[in-house]
Amino acid sequence: MEIAFLLFDNYETLDVFGPVEIFGRLTDLYTLKFYSLDGGIIENKHGVSVLTEKLETVSANPYLLLIPGGMGTRKEVDNPSLIGQIKEKAGASSYVLTVCTGSALLARSGLLDGRQATTNKRAFSWVESMGPNVNWDKKARWKVDDKYYTSSGVSAGMDMALGFLADRHGIEFARNVAFEIEYNWIEDKDNDSFIAE
Amino acid sequence: MEIAFLLFDNYETLDVFGPVEIFGRLTDLYTLKFYSLDGGIIENKHGVSVLTEKLETVSANPYLLLIPGGMGTRKEVDNPSLIGQIKEKAGASSYVLTVCTGSALLARSGLLDGRQATTNKRAFSWVESMGPNVNWDKKARWKVDDKYYTSSGVSAGMDMALGFLADRHGIEFARNVAFEIEYNWIEDKDNDSFIAE
């Protein structure tokens, strides 16, 4: 089962590599791949240069598409090529996970309309404005609506990734992954201590 | 001030990119760079391909050298070229941070001899055997001895990176960085709930 991580310039480092660490522990279950609109090396402001493949080459029905946040989302919400491909690939995926302001990109595709979602508590108003027909939840650490998982800021993506594993494989399975990486998992998706004002 | 991250095949993803997220928030203070023994693309088992520069091109006196862990350390402890360069570059750095089994590589250089250190609680015996003259602490989340910071497994590297910021800039400075990434920081370096048997 392929897990596709979508990168773009100035993605947020941990939004991607927190979940990569978690799903990457389960290489017997998942194959991790990295994509961007045009493929090639993608950089961010932390100086991390990662090799990616073209997004259009992702398999027809990926198991999971993960969309990170980061300052790059401010630009990419106005990139119709990327939003169009997100709509197509997210629509075809069994599951879609967004971290932080990655939810703004998914919201722009229209796929979150009428759904429950959350996002970074420090960029809430901006993300809300990108998806006026989405039911945004200001309290959740992460939110699940059908196949769509949306998380709060940065490290909340790790909590959500573990929550996703718990939903698929049971809580003890997820707890064991958290234990292996010596991570203090926040298990409660409904309460975030970093709530929006 | 340059922060140099050392990569090698099969480094652990989060050991690197957790601290990258934390130090990367402070680009007015720090420049992040990525190195490997021979430079070029470095891959790990999670499929993350990162572009690096040659380790010998690191500045003469880097501010901070970070050495991650991961399964690759099992091979690299027997790579005299890498251990020799670690000895030289770590010796010249103002600070050296290791995450997880990265401490085994630093121990092999001899620079930890007679010092306090810790490591991954799930690989403790092996790391101990790589540094028989190191005073290994089985209880610490991370350990500080002079310029050497060594942390427990994977996500403990993030706690240590925040602890490093607290030591340099004060606890409120570090708490603010944790808040920005909505991270539930384990502030107490002396007690790890993932202790070794």
UniProtKB/TrEMBL annotation, chains A, B:
| Pfam families cross-referenced by the UniProt entry | DJ-1_PfpI
What CDD domains does the annotation carry? GATase1_PfpI_2
InterPro entries from the entry?
Answer: Class_I_gatase-like (IPR029062), DJ-1/PfpI (IPR002818), INH-QAR (IPR052158)
Record organism: Cyclobacterium plantarum
Report domain DJ-1/PfpI positions.
Answer: 2-165
For this entry, the protein name equals DJ-1/PfpI family protein
Gene3D superfamilies the UniProt entry points to: 3.40.50.880
